[in-house]
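Hi team,

As requested, here is the filled-out complex form for the zinc ion run. I kept the field names the same as last time so the parser does not choke. Let me know if anything looks off before we queue the next batch.

— J.
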Amino acid sequence: MHLRCSAIECHTALGLHDRVFACPKCGELLEIVFDGKLPDPPKLKKTWLERRASSDPRDSSGVWRFREFLPDGYGDSEIVTMSEGNTPVLRGQRTAGWAGVRRLWFKHLGWNPTGSFKDLGMTVGITEAKFVGAKAVGCASTGNTAASLAAYAARAGLRAQIYLPAGQVSPNKLAQALDFGAEIIEVPGSFDDAIETLLHDSGADVYFLNSINPFRIEGQKTAMFELLEQFGWQAPDYLVVPGGNLGNSSAFGKAFIELKSYELIDKIPRMIVVQAKGANPFARLWTSGSRELQATAHPETVATAIRIGNPRSWKKALRAIEFTNGLVIDVTDEEIGEAKAMIGRDGIGCEPASATTLAGIRKLREMGTIDPDATIAAVLTGHALKDTDYIIKASQSLRDEAGAVLGI
Ligand SMILES: *Cc1c(COP(=O)(O)O)cnc(C)c1O
Ligand SMILES: [Zn+2]
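And here is what came back:
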């Protein structure tokens, strides 16, 4: 395994554990490539299943269980894990009817140790940080990366530095980061300003753990290994995911490329990325057919986890969309709100950003793009308790509306 520049025309190769975050030649993002030999697919699938019955900490992790496809070189006891992954797929009930489809499943990545999919990447990212001898780790975040980084850094005994857009992070996520003892730096502006400040201000001793870090992408990609195992290695027709900084979309695309090229699956799902209308540079890029991203200067949406105007991983995500013959759309805050309420009525719950998936499915169904009999897996990225202010405000305004109708 080694690190490689993700630009096809460059592909500069580096050592797997070199401490670099961008290509030294062209500045593009790096990716981890693997070109070794593996056991044949049936044997590999059997090994992965058997590990679920083992009490080895690496086997109890829904990430490290798939370690044949993860960065290597770590000793067994050097892996920083909290049994992340192992999340369920839940059948959509009322949500399916509401969206006008019959075969809908939710993969709930919000049911991870700190309540979001960020834990899947963080277990690998923090393991690598410790392995290369970092004493401090840092990230910019809309909240969930902060909570996850803080928790895993605490487990590893590393100092955590977190840059947040001031006043724009849900109190629940901030509380988690504080609980896990992270140092918080509030930056005026948006997430995009926070990440600029992190890159500019934090010292050379701080190991970066934003999703530009290729080790995080590797961990996040295992969500698709687990999902396909749960689907009996028969891919759904569509895989729907919210898009913010586009690290997750990139990770899932990488998973499909690898699963297909090692013949673990024969069909790949079409990937649909859904953005919020007020933070939709990737959806605009897709619709216009352009190859250059036009950033959104002032991203605005109730779905704070995806309030990002200048997504770092858009090129990798575009490749994933093209590889899977997928598409990108956007939905309004109102549509997100309705979809979120429906996911709640299904007894599942999620944070606003995750509800973009259901809102997007309904929209594509109305447009006739998706067949009502298509098999659809939607990824719920964050737990309902991640943004309780939103729920209370939304239910208050519903009550106010009902009161006005009834004349109370
Ligand atoms: C981070 C996050 C996203 C966005 O993921 P990207 O990789 O930035 O596209 C979506 N939903 C939730 C809940 C998140 O925490
Ligand atoms: Zn390069």
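Two things worth flagging: The chain has a mean pLDDT of 95. The pocket of pyridoxal-5'-phosphate (ligand 1) is lined by residues 116, 118, 144, 211, 242-249, 305-306, 351, 353-354, 381-382 (CB under 6 Å).

Thanks,
J.
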